[in-house]
Amino acid sequence: MTGTSVLNQTHLLLPAKEPIQSPEFHLSLKEQECLSLLKRCKSVRELKQIHVQILKIGLLGDSFCAGNLVATCALSDWGSMDYACSIFRHVKEPQTFLFNTMMRGHVKDGNWGQALILYFDMLKSGVEPDNFTYPVLLKACARLSATEEGMQIHGHTSKLGLQGDLFVQNSLINMYGKCGKIELACAVFDQMDQKSVASWGAIIAAHASLGMWWECLVLFGDMNREGCWRAEESTLVSVLSACTHLRVFDMGRCTHGSLLRNFSGFNVIVETSLIDMYVKCGCLEKGLCLFHNMAKRNQLSFSVIISGLAMHGHGRKALEVFSKMLEEGLLPDDVVYVGVLSACSHAGLVDEGLQCFNRMKFEHGIQPTVQHYGCLVDLLGRAGWVRAAFELIESMPIRPNDVIWRSLLSACRIHGDMELGEIAARNLMQSNSRNPGDYVVLSNMYAKAQKWDDFARVRTEMVSKGLVQTPGFSMVEVQRKVFKFVSHDMSHPQCDGVNEMIHQMEWQLRFDGYVPDTSQVLLDVDEEEKRERLKYHSQKLAIAFALIHTSQGSPVRIVRNLRMCSDCHTYTKFISVIYGREITVRDRNQFHHFKDGTCSCRDYW
DNA sequence: ATAGGGTTAG
Questions:
Q1: Quick one: CA dihedral A292, A298, A299, A300, positive or negative?
Q2: Cβ of A89: how many Cβ atoms within 10 Å?
Q3: Which residue is nearest to the C1' sugar atom of B5, using CA?
Q4: Does A306 map to a domain?
Q5: What is the pLDDT of residue A26?
Q6: What is the mean pLDDT of residues A95-121?
Q7: Distances from the Cα of A374 to the Cαs of A354, A432, A600, A605, in angstroms?
Q8: Domain for residue A545, yes or no?
Q9: Residue A539 included in any domain
Q10: Potential cystine with A133: which of A129, A177, A467, A573 (Cβ 3.0-4.6 Å)?
Q11: How do beta strands A583-586 and A481-486 pair?
Q12: Could you give phi then psi for residue A129, rounded to 5 degrees?
């Protein structure tokens, strides 16, 4: 159709089908022509011709025609908001539909503020908004986190009697969620007579964005219970994220199942969240498998797999994946570098870590944050460069936080540096973190050095501050139930069997050359007593329980609150080979995979 | 007669 005006093509002037004549609305023939033309319009150039034609037949003042002209221009893929604005400016008496359309256009282009301004213009010129006005407008408020305007607009919807409109309610939930006003979002949600899938999606997303993971899962349960089981993909991603943060593997796997059943072909976001879930819940293999089968990977996909490999002690592999990421032309950000540096620190790759740190600053222009310094302090400290770690803390341009002092303290404990350990501990005790673990570590250092006076002084100080030593516990999943074992606590209902098993295991292990390592039992008691204490560490109770209640050869997964002692580490290596089990243990920040008598951390942790 | 809610992950 080059060169000829669309309006010359007579077939375009015919309406597509017989117009429906309703008693309320009667379209003149000209209006019908106009509408039919606009429906076929495919470019701005054609639109301009139609615009001229409308001017010629004197319909510009007609709100209906102007509205549709603007709608076509503002909302189609090829449209231009600039042109829509110029048409809009020439309409003498714009009406609701025209304002709504203009607002939609602005929102579509990401000009959230413009949409708000237009709304207030609309009110000023006395045009009454309707139920179509608010969802668009509230989306703009949500994107701007404009709480005040959002609340004001909420008021307007009530005044107009729109509080019962499902779309308006869902938009309100979303708006309050994005503004961080969770109680207001819940208030709207709770008052709804009918909830749609999107209502549940909006309230779940609102909780997810605030990190209220537990509430997310509860709401998801409520949603299913109320017969609303067809959750949207995005909602399942929020649920998956909650599972990851709470490390509830079972629920995570179920969510993966729902995704498989209800959606075909996952997008990058779904796949990345799945990988993160599997990796953080201990299934590195599954995460890697998903990662390798991804059709498309982005910065975040690499980010989760790198920090996952780090968490599981595969430092070299993490660095390999990092190089691959760079090869694929993806730029790392600060989070990726946290993963890379922690990979180096978990694997003891000191030179590589320092190299990466410089690369981050000079090649990729990323300002190191306190987290990056934290990784570096950890890297140096664990590797035995305690003094260098301390000097780094003193020279860094950011104020060190508790995490940094704690990692120095931990390094001092491992390498027996009392002087720096005391400095680190003093900094921790002066801050208001009130972490009993810090007192315990320092006092244990004194115990190890046989300084029993200092030991007593620190313990007394801890008690006088009202702090209680956190008891060590291990949790194990058996037949979809979680069982918790506390060190030396034999009050568990299944403990009879466990006690027997503990003895049986000990005999087996001794027979194969296991020697209890009592060096970490910091009590002023004899060797025999120390060995007795070691026997009932929570991890051993949990392993015994799992060996009794799971079938031969099935993997054992344990989660614990504190770092394991070196004896439990050795012990578990023996168990993995003697009982032919793969045992995964997660402590606060990393995983140990015991298999065939070795651990994935290669004894560096 | 035309039009409306969600892009979720590290």
A1: negative
A2: 8
A3: A167
A4: no
A5: 65
A6: 93
A7: 13, 19, 23, 16
A8: yes
A9: yes
A10: A129
A11: unpaired
A12: -70, 160
| A583 plus A500 within the same structural domain | yes
CATH of the domain at A386: 1.25.40
What is the residue-wise DSSP string for A224-276?
HHTT-----HHHHHHHHHHHHHHT-HHHHHHHHHHHHHH-SS--HHHHHHHHH
Put residue A144 in one of left, alpha, beta given phi > 0 → left and psi -120 to 50 → alpha. Answer: alpha
Does A350 map to a domain? no
Per the structure, the complete domain to which residue A485 belongs is given by 473-599
Q: Is the dihedral of CA A492, A493, A496, A502 positive or negative?
A: negative
Kindly state whether residues A546 and A511 are assigned to the same domain. Answer: yes
Which residue, counting CA atoms, is nearest to the C1' of nucleotide B1? A25
Asked if A37 and A7 count as a contact pair (C-beta separation under 8 A), the reply is yes
Position A18 pLDDT exceeds 70: no
Helix or strand holding residue A476 (H, E) = strand A473-478
Q: Which of A464, A487, A510 is the last residue of a domain?
A: A464
Instruction: Decide which of A499 and A287 is more confident.
Output: A287
Question: In residues, how long is chain A?
Answer: 605
Q: How many domains, chain A?
A: 2
State which nucleotides on strand B lie below 7 Å from a protein beta carbon: 1-10
Q: Which nucleotide is nearest to A175 (CA to C1')?
A: B5
Which CA distances in Å does A512 have to A386, A482, A517, A546?
A: 36, 31, 15, 21
CB A36 within 8 A of CB A79: no
- B6 C1' – A174 CA distance, angstroms? 8
Which nucleotide has the shortest C1'-to-CA distance from A22?
B1
Confidence of residue A363 (pLDDT cuts 50, 70, 90): very high
CA A420 to C1' B9, whole Å:
40
A557 and A483 share a domain?
Answer: yes
Give the DSSP H/E element, type plus range, for residue A594: strand A591-595
Last residue of a domain, one of A412, A437, A464: A464
A484-503 mean pLDDT? 84
Q: Is the pLDDT of residue A235 over 60?
A: yes
Q: What is the pLDDT of residue A60?
A: 61
Q: Which one-letter amino acid corresponds to residue A545?
A: F
